[in-house]
Design a protein that fits this description.
This protein is an alpha/beta fold and 137 residues long. It is 35% helix and 22% strand. It has a single domain, classed as Nucleotidyltransferase, domain 5, CATH 3.30.420. It has a five-stranded mixed beta sheet, sandwiched between helices. The longest helix is centred in the last third of the chain and has 14 residues. It is globular.
Length: 137
């Protein structure tokens, strides 16, 4: 279980990708948003650095291209697809729970706001949690 106790999750996109490293207990060890072209090398480096046992990828539109790029960067990276249905909404709620609006923005419901920075890394965390809940780690 030592090798499988950490997963790297990727929320693939055409221009940017969210990446997160999450352990079996659900603790987020690292997360970031990178340009899509940089994603395979970042995942490869984090897989070694964090001794991750599995790479998972959201199954959206760009999943096939992201999976192919990961395999090209390192053939040992065999991504597993995870359902990303409604993960963006869940990530937005999580972002605002962890970063509540301040000043006059706190008067506007967060459901009507867009986070001030890309939050694809939060989507990656949600995907990792879904994978870990399935008990496949």
């Amino acid at each position: 279980m030592a090798m499988r106790s950490r997963v790297i999750a990727v929320d693939p996109g055409r221009q940017k990708c969210g990446i997160a490293v999450v352990d079996a207990e659900g603790e987020v060890l690292d997360r970031t948003v990178v340009p899509t072209a940089e994603m395979p090398q970042r995942v490869k480096a984090w897989a070694q650095e964090h001794a991750a046992g599995q790479v998972i990828v959201g199954n959206g539109t760009t999943a096939a291209a992201a999976s192919a790029a990961l395999k090209a960067a390192d053939p040992s990276l065999e991504p597993v697809l995870v359902d990303e249905h409604r993960s963006t909404e869940a990530a937005r709620r999580r972002y605002f729970a962890e970063n509540p609006p301040r000043g006059w923005r706190r008067l506007i419901p967060t459901s009507l706001q867009v986070p001030p920075r890309p939050y694809d890394d939060y989507v990656a965390v949600i995907l990792a949690e879904r994978y870990l809940r399935r008990g496949e780690s």
